[in-house]
Amino acid sequence: MFDFSKERIISMLLSLPAILFALSVHELAHGWTANKLGDHTARNFGRLSLNPLRHIDLFGFIALLVVGFGWAKPVPVNSRYFKKPKRDMALTALAGPAANLLSAFIFGFFYVFVGKMCINYFNANYLTITEETIQLWSALLNIVYAFVIINISLAIFNLIPIPPLDGSRLLDSFLPGKLFAAYHKYEQYISLALMAILIFTDVISNLLGYATSFVESIILYIPQKVFNI
Questions:
Q1: d(CA 101, CA 117)
Q2: Of 35, 105, 157, 204, which is most buried by a Cβ count within 10 Å?
Q3: pLDDT in tens, 160-171
Q4: Does residue 215 belong to any structural domain of this protein?
């Protein structure tokens, strides 16, 4: 059952800036990489932009907002313009998740830094601190944390080998001829089966949740060591 409690709705609203940013930087990275490798299709379609309106897929946006895993409107890529199609397609596919993970790492430093500031401020002003101050710091931390976790979840989800997710493009780049043909012959059925498992069971969502938590712990470990927390 979906949780639409007051707390959950507030959490979704606080996540909106992070969702719009994560989707935009993900698709921009795809388009920028393809453009550098010789395919200017994304540039010609105006997709080399951080404007979220150019990248949002309605259902993917809602899914990311409600369940924490979603997708954007795929950037058009034409592998015929690549010098080494398989290699360059793999690099283009990896660019989106890589950009999200880099963003999560940067915001992870900011999240830990703000948390450290909170601790120092509260320790120094514990007699004069107000409820409003606590709520303000809490809201700020939640917003920054959303940038961390949503970028991670978007990166991991997009590595699933379901068209049009990035994982399918990566798989295309490494499959030998016979397996490539067999995969594309049955990819519609494979995609439907995986989507059904994702929607109607907790198997894939639980695995994605574990993977997200694991990556989050790694990303936050370094700034915690840097700021001695």
A1: 24
A2: 157
A3: 877 778 988 888
A4: yes
**CA 80, CA 94: separation in Å to the nearest integer?**
18
- Catalytic hit among 7, 27, 187, 216: 27
State how many domains the chain has: 1
Catalytic site residue 27? Answer: yes
Q: For 41-90, how does the pLDDT look when each residue is reduced to its tens digit (9 = 90+)?
A: 999 999 999 999 899 888 888 877 777 677 788 899 998 999 998 899 99
**Residue 72 backbone dihedrals phi, psi, to 5 degrees:** -110, 180
Q: Provide the domain limits for residue 160.
A: 6-226
Is 53 buried (19+), middle (13-18) or exposed (0-12) by CB count in 10 A?
exposed
According to the 3-state scheme, what is the secondary structure of the chain? CCCCCHHHHHHHHHHHHHHHHHHHHHHHHHHHHHHHCCCCHHHHCCCCCCCHHHCCCHHHHHHHHHHCCCCCCCCCCCHHHCCCHHHHHHHHHHHHHHHHHHHHHHHHHHHHHHHHHHHHHHHHCCCCCCHHHHHHHHHHHHHHHHHHHHHHHHHHHCCCCCCCCHHHHHHHHHCCHHHHHHHHHHHHHHHHHHHHHHHHCCHHHHHHHHHHHHHHHHHHHHHHHHCCC
Average pLDDT over residues 92-99: 96
Tell whether 1 is covered by a domain. no
CA within 13 Å, CB half, 29: 23
CA distances from 105 to 19, 128, 166, 178, 207 (A): 16, 34, 20, 39, 21
